[in-house]
């Protein structure tokens, strides 16, 4: 069929600014960036608290959070599906098969990564800073914002890892979003669908865009991080 | 000059510290008076830094007592410590000072003014907007002393503040310590540098193997030490 031309057709789709493709890319970015933002707001303080806290069950929480970094996306999708389905505990929200449900599922996937990597970073910093900060009168609780800010260059990497996981996964958004054209179809679910339909050009085009976005974002973060780090020491 | 009540003298009695089943300090008894400069000396592993950390409250003694005069409730806010390797935050020099002042409970509106006052007190104005982590070792240590000074402590503990510095930086640190002392701060400092101790000490606490062997006026310590260990130390023969 059109396989020989798939690559050039893909480039054409991208260059011509195909509106269907544009809508899919926009939705994907919207969902993933929202999930990264929410996971950061929860995960950065939670990870720091886990690093500095002294309470029963701390070790268990660390192990669970580390283990959940490997949570299969389809399982996360299934859990969110059950929770959001009509008869589920959160069914009244009416979120199933909406972008909102996809954000919830991806947040759950990213959160363990952000928490675990933040915990490790902050714990290492605390080992270096503890005496000095305690000497200056800082409590462990008060040290949380101080250490998060001082660990900012390492923590960017944690957020990029979260972004990578969310933008690359298919299983969770497929289950809770339903891959509805023009509404919940993301780059990854579209690639899966178009490939199985045989429309390799669109699938390939989306694949190129997905990789380009990831590369661009990481390059930007790397350069910005290096410049800022050089300035801040 | 520090307003309100003095937290000195500091009374230490029967102070002991054990870690990992080893007794590192054995029943130290001493009193630190206001005004003079006390140098804690002794060979490596004598317990100098440990004694300083216990007095500053970073460690809890396993035996004995450490009492600031009258048991003032906020005595812990009135002594500051400068470490051998200062930890400065990844922000500007000025922001490092305002952060410390925030931790000290200074109202937000007064922090920057006080921080700038501290920088200019020690001629560090030019560093204000520089990132603290890219400063030289000597500049970082001077900034650490300015940070301690900004909190207006009555007692300044210094743990080998110059041992990682070159002679020029060492000299400027010693000048800063002298300035703090001239303003009425009690100086309590550890060093293994005999020359430095001769320049700075009014009295010497001499520790060896976790025991306090002497608390002697400096003049007497350097010319007529009371113990054979101190004599050997001054001759440079006692290293452990």
UniProtKB/TrEMBL annotation, chain A:
Q: Please state where this protein is localized.
A: Cell membrane
Bilayer-crossing regions: 20-53, 60-84, 90-115, 200-224
Domain of life the protein comes from: Bacteria
- The UniProt record lists the ABC transmembrane type-1 domain at 25-221
Q: Which InterPro entries match?
A: ABC_perm_TupB-like (IPR049783), MetI-like (IPR000515), MetI-like_sf (IPR035906)
Give the keywords, sorted. Answer: Membrane, Transmembrane, Transmembrane helix
Signal peptide (from-to): none
One GO biological process this protein is involved in is:
transmembrane transport
According to the UniProt record, one GO cellular component term is: plasma membrane
Q: How does it sit in the membrane?
A: Multi-pass membrane protein
What this protein is called in its record is ABC transporter permease
The record lists the organism as: Oceanibaculum pacificum
Automatic annotation (TrEMBL), chain B:
Look up keyword Aminoacyl-tRNA synthetase and say if it applies. Answer: no
Q: Which PROSITE patterns match?
A: ABC_TRANSPORTER_1, ABC_TRANSPORTER_2
Name the GO cellular-component terms.
Answer: plasma membrane
Recorded superkingdom? Bacteria
Q: Where is the ABC transporter domain?
A: 10-234
Instruction: Please indicate if the UniProt record lists Phosphoprotein as a keyword.
Output: no
Any Gene Ontology biological process: phosphate ion transmembrane transport
Localization terms from the record: Cell membrane
**SUPFAM superfamilies, alphabetically?**
P-loop containing nucleoside triphosphate hydrolases (SSF52540)
Q: Which GO terms describe its molecular function?
A: ATP binding; ATP hydrolysis activity; phosphate transmembrane transporter activity
The way it spans or sits in the membrane comes to: Peripheral membrane protein
* Principal location listed in the UniProt entry: membrane
Keyword field: ATP-binding, Cell membrane, Membrane, Nucleotide-binding, Phosphate transport, Transport
InterPro entries to which the protein is assigned, alphabetical: AAA+_ATPase, ABC_transporter-like_ATP-bd, ABC_transporter-like_CS, MetN_ABC_transporter-like, P-loop_NTPase, PstB-like
Stated family? Belongs to the ABC transporter superfamily.
What name has this protein been given in UniProt?
ABC transporter ATP-binding protein
């Amino acid at each position: 069929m059109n396989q020989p031309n798939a690559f050039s057709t893909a480039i054409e789709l991208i260059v011509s600014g195909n509106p269907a493709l544009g809508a899919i890319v926009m939705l994907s970015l919207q969902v993933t960036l929202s999930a990264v933002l929410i996971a950061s707001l929860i995960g950065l303080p939670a990870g720091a608290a886990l690093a500095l806290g002294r309470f029963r069950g701390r070790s268990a929480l660390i192990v669970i959070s580390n283990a959940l970094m490997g949570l299969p996306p389809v399982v996360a999708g299934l859990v969110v599906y059950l929770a959001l389905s009509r008869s589920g505990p959160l069914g009244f929200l009416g979120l199933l098969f909406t972008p909102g449900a996809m954000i919830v599922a991806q947040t759950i996937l990213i959160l363990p990564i952000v928490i675990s990597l933040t915990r490790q970073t902050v714990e290492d910093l605390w080992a270096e800073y503890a005496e000095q900060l305690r000497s200056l009168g800082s409590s462990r609780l008060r040290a949380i914002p101080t250490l998060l800010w001082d660990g900012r260059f390492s923590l960017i990497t944690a957020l990029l890892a979260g972004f990578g996981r969310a933008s690359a996964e298919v299983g969770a958004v497929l289950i809770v979003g339903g891959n509805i054209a023009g509404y919940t179809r993301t780059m990854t679910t579209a690639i899966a669908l178009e490939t199985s339909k045989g429309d390799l050009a669109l699938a390939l085009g989306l694949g190129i865009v997905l990789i380009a976005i990831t590369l661009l974002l990481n390059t930007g973060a790397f350069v910005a991080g290096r410049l800022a780090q050089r300035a801040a020491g | 000059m520090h307003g309100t009540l003095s937290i000195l003298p500091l009374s230490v009695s029967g102070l002991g510290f054990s870690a990992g089943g080893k007794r590192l300090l054995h029943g130290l008894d001493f009193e630190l008076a206001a005004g003079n400069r006390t140098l804690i000396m002794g060979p490596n592993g004598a317990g100098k830094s440990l004694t300083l950390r216990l007095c500053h409250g970073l460690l809890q003694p396993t035996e004995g007592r450490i009492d600031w005069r009258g048991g003032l409730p906020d005595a812990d806010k009135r002594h500051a410590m400068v470490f051998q390797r200062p930890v400065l935050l990844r922000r500007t020099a000025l922001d490092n000072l305002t952060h410390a002042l925030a931790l000290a409970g200074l109202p937000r509106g007064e922090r920057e003014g006080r921080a700038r006052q501290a920088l200019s007190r020690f001629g560090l104005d030019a560093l204000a907007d520089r990132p603290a982590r890219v400063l030289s070792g000597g500049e970082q240590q001077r900034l650490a002393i300015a940070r301690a000074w900004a909190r207006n402590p009555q007692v300044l503990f210094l743990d080998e503040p110059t041992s990682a510095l070159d002679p020029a930086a060492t000299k400027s640190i010693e000048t800063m310590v002298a300035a703090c002392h001239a303003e009425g701060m009690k100086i309590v400092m550890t060093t293994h540098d005999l020359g430095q101790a001769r320049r700075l000490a009014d009295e010497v606490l001499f520790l060896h193997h976790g025991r306090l062997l002497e608390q002697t006026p400096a003049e007497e310590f350097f010319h007529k030490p009371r113990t054979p260990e101190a004599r050997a130390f001054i001759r440079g023969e006692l290293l452990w």
